[in-house]
Each structure stands twice: as C-alpha cells, then as structure tokens.
C-alpha cells in the first residue's frame, strides 16, 4: 500500500479537504501527544500536499507525568505568550486529546485540572483570530482506556479513521428531513420489540445538526469554533414536561473512563421514575445523580446518529447511524435548553423505530 492510500493518509486528507476545506497558503496548527504523533505526521504531510503551512505542537506523555509527579502542574496550566502568538496567526487548528492515560488523569483530581487552566484564554484568542478547526477523537484510544472500556484498541482506532472519511454533505442531506420533523412535530414515539416504548413531547426547538462542517451561525455557539470529528448527529431539546414509557439500551454508555451497559430509563408524567444499568451503575448514575440538583430527572436531549462507520464506539455511541439517544438533566448549552442540573445521563438504542405525530421517520443505519 502506498503512503498516499494508507488509512492514515485517507483520514488526514478527508479532514483537511472535506471537513475543514484547507486552502493553499493557510496556516495549519496540529496539536498532538506522543501516542497521536503518527496522525499528526499524516495531517502535516497532507497539509503540505495542499500547499498549506503545517505547524506541529507535540506534548510528551512521559514528561507530562514526570512533571505532575514532581508537583509542577502549574507549568502546564500557564498561557504561553509565544504559543498564543502562533495561535493568533493560525487559520486551521487540529486538536488531538491528551494526555493519553485518562484513567491515571482522573485519579489526579483537581491537580490534573490545573494543567488545563489555559483553556478559557485559548478559546478567547482563537475566537479573535477567526480560527476554524476540529477536536479529533483519534487522540483518545490508549491502552489503559481501552482496557477500562473492555474494547480492542486497534478496532476502536480503525473505526475512528474510517468514520472521519464519511462524506459530511451526505450526512447533512440525511439530517435535513430528521431535523425538520423534530422541529415541527408535537409527539415522538420510540419503540422496538425488546421493551422500548417511549413517548416524548416536542416543543418546536431548533435542531442542532453536527456533521463536522458547522455553518457560520452554528460556529457562534459556545466552543463551536472546533467541531468534533468523527461527527454525525441531529439533536433537539424535547418538551421537559412530557415523557411516558420506557427506553432500553442496546449500546453501551461511556464516560471519560467508565463503560455502562444494560441501561434502562422509565418515565411517568415527564419525570424519570426508574432506572437501571447492569454495569457502571455507581459511576454513571448513582453518584452523579445524587448530586444533580433540580430537574435532573427531566428529559433533556434527544439525539439521532448519522455516521455509518461507527458501532458501539467509545464516547461516540450516540452518533452511530440510527442510534437514538435519550438524555436527562443538563441541556442549557442547546437551543431551547433551560435545564441547569449538573447531571447528564443517557441511554442509547440503535435500531428502534421512530414515529413523529404518528408518521414513521426514516433513519440511517450503520454499515
């Protein structure tokens, strides 16, 4: 296989051309860590082939942990002026998650949070500069996290590479009729033959279409100057007062380091009255729900997945084509969202049928 046709090259070419539409002469900044350096290299190579100017920022995993062990987290949390100067001249920014060892990071607690103290200043600088870009999930697969999730790291990585080559225009075409139905309807029924039969209310809230190519208007939402890739979803805030019935998961629910399976939500009178996870109960529901505050039990989001190259993929389970995600709790960052609970819980069912005001709604399916 030639380097130009390798999975890494196709991944990089798709991101730069289909999603970010990099032009000759543009400055492309690529931020990666030790484990994501191969993808950073592929992106830099493809950027040069497009006659753009790549700059790779590399963070070393071993050094990061060595400095944290030496209680030097403040050096990572600072806002370096020379990096900010480069950011102010950047047209396109690509960020790959790091450090890789999220399991160890979570155990660090507040100390780890200090290493990301620059985040707010970064977004202010990038917004002023008119940066467009993406957060790349390819930076997430890592041995300790794959073990925590109980997934094969190679399969996980392959899915992410392929899912970033999906045509965003095709996903947006599929999203159009779904978004229109969710914006105009009054009632939605989700059902299958495995125990799911849930009715939700719709309140004519605008649907958020995420296909990795946000419009100028969509880029005005908080943190939306960077899209998430892979992408592919339609999300709407439902009527928080209407929810009757049960939804059962046939996909896992993933947090930063925990995998929950066998999820079930039961609603009556617009509130969650019963819930269940076969695994991950304490971490994904019981502990955070207890601290969630008012309206943690209200329906908050309904999401439909569009990406055909994903299947039960960690932290992308909700954008698998045909996946239906029912969320409770927080939604204040979405159009029409007023729920300020600190809790966000969800279950995912891929393959269920949907009816809007009694009419079937066609959904894409994963390949």
Decide which structural class fits the backbone: alpha+beta
Q: What's the gyration radius in Å?
A: 21 Å
Task: Report the principal-axis shape.
Answer: globular
- Helix count from the secondary structure assignment: 12
The strand line-up of the biggest sheet is 14-13-10-6-5-18-19
Beta-strand percent range: 25-35%
Mean pLDDT: 94
The helical percent reads 25-40%
Q: Care to count the β-strands?
A: 19
Note poorly predicted spans. Answer: none
Provide the number of structural domains.
2
Give the CA-CA distance, first to last residue: 24 Å
Q: How is the main sheet built?
A: 7 strands, antiparallel
Structure description:
The chain has 367 residues and is α+β, with helices and mostly antiparallel strands. The protein has two domains: 3-163, Thermophilic metalloprotease (M29) (Thermophilic metalloprotease-like, 3-Layer(aba) Sandwich); 168-223 and 232-360, no CATH class. It is built from twelve helices and 19 strands. It has helices at 7-19, 37-49, 61-69, 73-77, 81-88, 102-108, 110-114, 119-129, 143-149, 153-163, 168-184, 281-290; strands spanning 27-33, 53-59, 92-96, 132-136, 187-191, 197-202, 208-210, 226-229, 233-236, 238-248, 253-254, 259-260, 264-268, 271-276, 299-305, 323-329, 344-350, 353-356, 359-360. The chain has a seven-stranded antiparallel beta sheet with strand order 14-13-10-6-5-18-19. Strand 5 (187-191) and strand 6 (197-202) form a beta hairpin. Helix 1 (7-19) crosses helix 2. The longest helix is centred in the middle third of the chain and has 17 residues, at 168-184. It is globular. The two termini are 24 Å apart. The model has no long low-confidence stretch (mean pLDDT 94).
């Amino acid at each position: 296989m030639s380097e130009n046709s390798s999975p890494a090259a196709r991944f990089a070419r798709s991101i730069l051309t289909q999603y970010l539409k990099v032009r000759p002469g543009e400055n492309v900044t690529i931020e990666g860590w030790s484990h994501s350096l191969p993808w950073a290299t592929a992106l830099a190579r493809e950027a040069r082939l497009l006659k753009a100017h790549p700059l790779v920022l590399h963070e070393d995993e071993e050094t990061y942990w060595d400095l944290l062990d030496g209680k030097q987290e403040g050096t990572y949390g600072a806002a370096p002026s020379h990096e900010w100067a480069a950011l102010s001249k950047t047209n396109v920014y690509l960020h790959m998650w790091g450090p890789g060892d999220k399991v160890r990071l979570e155990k660090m607690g507040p100390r780890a949070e200090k290493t990301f103290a620059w985040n707010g200043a970064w977004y202010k600088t990038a917004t002023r500069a008119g940066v467009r870009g993406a957060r790349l999930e390819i930076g997430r697969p890592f041995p300790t996290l794959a073990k925590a999730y109980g997934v094969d790291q190679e399969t996980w990585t392959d899915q992410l590479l392929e899912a970033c080559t999906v045509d965003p225009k095709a996903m947006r075409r599929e999203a159009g009729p779904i978004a229109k139905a969710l914006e105009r309807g009054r009632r939605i029924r989700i059902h299958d033959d495995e125990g799911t039969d849930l009715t939700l209310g719709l309140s004519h809230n605008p649907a958020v279409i995420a296909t990795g190519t946000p419009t100028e208007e969509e880029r005005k939402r908080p943190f939306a100057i960077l899209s998430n890739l892979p992408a592919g979803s339609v999300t709407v805030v439902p009527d928080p007062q209407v929810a009757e019935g049960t939804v059962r998961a046939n996909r896992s629910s993933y947090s930063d380091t925990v995998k929950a399976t066998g999820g079930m939500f039961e609603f009556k009178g617009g509130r969650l009255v019963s819930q269940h996870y076969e695994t991950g109960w304490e971490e994904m529901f019981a502990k955070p729900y207890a601290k969630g505050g008012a309206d943690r039990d209200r329906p908050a989001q309904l999401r439909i997945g569009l990406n055909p190259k994903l299947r039960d993929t960690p932290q992308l389970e909700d954008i698998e084509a045909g996946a239906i995600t029912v969320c409770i709790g927080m939604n204040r960052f979405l159009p029409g969202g007023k729920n300020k609970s600190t809790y966000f819980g969800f279950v995912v069912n891929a393959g269920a049928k949907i009816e809007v005001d009694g009419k079937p709604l066609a959904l894409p399916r994963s390949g």
